[in-house]
Design goal:
16 helices; disordered C terminus; alpha/beta; 3 domains; 6-phosphogluconate dehydrogenase C-terminal fold; Rossmann fold
Length: 382
């Protein structure tokens, strides 16, 4: 396909990298010439300007209008910041009258309403809203990755009036990035992302904000739990302001419910009658919600056994650990690593199917790895 991407930030450049790797003709456009050229230099596509089309760059004698992928794209993808996406989508529908126009914005209802107000006639029939559920804390083309969308949900907001051929083009494009396509109504999408993406960003930012003036000796106690909770607090404030205002109603609704439960915890910490029960309930309800988060590859939640291994912080240690695990014939379902404070030592938590936990522990011990729990149990039975 011929795909023209407008906006060469993280998502636009990553999409260009993924589609170019699949052999599609990708052209790039951005209001920033530097950002546009950077994405092109990284391999996300080719820059097309009025002075030099792709065809001219390849052959000065070529017929530019018909030959240029940007002149007659099959799909135009708007990957601009959310606050200008509607205007850019409407412009793309006007400038590319035969193309299917889509976007990657994380808010869909307000965007669709704005595009509807800016379009005329049957232009809206060529617009299909999308939202690939992928991203990073870093922004810009320099952070782009060709596999950013691999195994990630790609939401498509179409309806019964969406032409089948245009819907098929968008589905094919999304699947060529390695994403898993989901179809959702725009309002259902916005309610969902408020819970699974937008509110977590607010909460992570608020928790991290409490560290601004904390003494360094307090922050030095930070473990993996704090890092997990605050990882996305490094996100771009400008972008997230646009996202939160674009989905304000849904985000506010979730935050109001969260505030109610937070107020209950604050009251319980006054340690009055029934306080321990309220605190336990809050943690237990969190357990219930956590257990509903999908497992690997979007499968139903699965409970894994965790084997903790102490590892020295030296080059090649992790590679040797995972080679030894592979040699034992064990598949790692997940893993995380924490670093000991003040020592060049790490703790790797390896998640495996419960039935092979003991086999893995015994095998690693035999290969010289230190496993705290097993060492304690061994000492207790000596």
């Amino acid at each position: 396909m011929r795909v023209h991407i407008i906006g060469t930030g993280l998502l636009g450049a990553s999409l260009g990298l993924a589609l170019s790797a699949k052999g599609h003709q990708v052209t790039l456009e951005d209001t920033s010439p530097t950002a546009q050229q950077l994405a092109a230099d990284l391999g996300a596509g080719q820059v097309v300007t009025p002075k030099a089309t792709v065809a001219e760059a390849a052959d000065p004698n070529a017929a530019t209008d018909a030959a240029s992928p940007a002149a007659h794209p099959d799909i135009v993808v708007v990957a601009t910041p959310p606050d200008v996406a509607a205007r850019v989508i409407a412009s793309a529908l006007e400038n590319y009258p035969n193309a299917t126009v889509t976007d990657v914005a994380s808010v869909k209802t307000r965007l669709l309403e704005a595009v509807r107000e800016l379009t005329t006639g049957t232009q809206l029939d060529r617009y299909i809203g999308c939202h690939p559920m992928a991203g990073r804390e870093k922004s810009g083309a320099i952070a782009a990755q060709s596999d950013l969308f691999t195994a990630r949900p790609w939401v498509i907001c179409s309806d019964e009036d969406t032409p089948a051929d245009r819907l098929g083009e968008v589905i094919a494009m999304a699947e060529d990035t390695g994403a898993s396509v989901l179809h959702l109504d725009p309002r259902i999408h916005d309610a969902a992302v408020a819970k699974v993406s937008h509110v977590p960003q607010v909460v992570a930012s608020l928790v991290a904000s409490q560290l601004r003036h904390a003494p360094l000796e307090e922050i030095s106690l930070a473990g993996q739990g704090l890092r997990d909770v605050t990882r996305i607090a490094a996100s771009d404030p400008g972008l997230w302001t646009q996202i939160l205002t674009g989905n304000a109603e849904e985000v506010r609704s979730v935050l109001v419910d969260l505030r109610t439960e937070l107020d209950e915890v604050i009251s319980a910490l006054e340690l009055g009658p029934g306080s321990t029960g309220l605190l336990a309930k809050a943690i237990a309800l969190g357990n219930e919600g956590h257990d509903r988060i999908p497992g690997k590859h979007g499968q139903p939640p699965t409970t894994y056994a965790v084997v903790t291994i102490l590892v020295p912080d030296t080059p090649g240690t992790l590679a040797r650990l995972f080679k030894d695990i592979g040699d034992l014939g064990v598949n790692v379902e997940d893993f995380r690593m924490d670093h000991a404070s003040g020592r060049k030592l790490g703790m790797v938590d390896v998640s495996v199917v419960p039935a092979i936990q003991q086999e893995l522990e015994i095998g690693l011990l035999s290969k010289g790895w230190q496993i705290p729990e097993s060492a304690i149990e061994k000492e207790g039975t000596a």
